[in-house]
Amino acid sequence: MDFLKPTADCPDSVPSSTETGGTNCLAPGGLSDSQVLQEPGDQSHWCVVAYWEEKTRVGRLYSVQEPSLDIFYDLPQGNGFCLGQLNSDNKSQLVQKVRSKIGYGIQLTKEVDGVWVYNRSSYPIFIKSATLDNPDSRTLLVHKVFPGFSIKAFDYEKAYSLQRPNDHEFMQQPWTGFTVQISFVKGWGQCYTRQFISSCPCWLEVIFNNR
User: Fold this and answer.
1) Burial (CB count within 10 angstroms: exposed 0-12, middle 13-18, buried 19+), residue 161
2) Which of 19, 114, 140, 146 is 20 to 30 Å from 3 at the Cα level?
3) Which cellular component, as a GO term, is one annotated location (predicted)?
């Protein structure tokens, strides 16, 4: 019950099931953005999720403590991280169109062998993860997951054996734990006009606790 109480620094904060974002208050679980990223050994959460629209992050980092999390757009469509309640100023027609297609979104589930992503929406999602490909490849492939299908997006055992991938886009990002990128509806990479995920309308960055 103490977890659900508003903090003194942010009296209007809400529990993680109705995350609204758009402020500098504490993220769910009482962690600020800097604390979430700088304390990877904290076992209170197994990953954090950031929601992006093109090159702009929307809302705060979402700390995940439960073994399963639904990420969706409208409140009636799940109980977890509601993207529709985040404050976004993006007026792009493409972004708004993709937002409307997120629907039931995805489900992240932590299993013994790794983290699985289930596509609950009516449109494909696209995933990039170092543990899905050959670590010796020059760039990591982007994997398309159709509605109703799932994929093991992250393998803990394999991740620990990997060195930093030789990937241009990845090298431009800060290395904070293990990261998986997920785009709704639109793909990116070698087979698409969008070369980088930052060009995708709506996407997620999932940062795993690496200890």
Assistant:
1) exposed
2) 114
3) plasma membrane
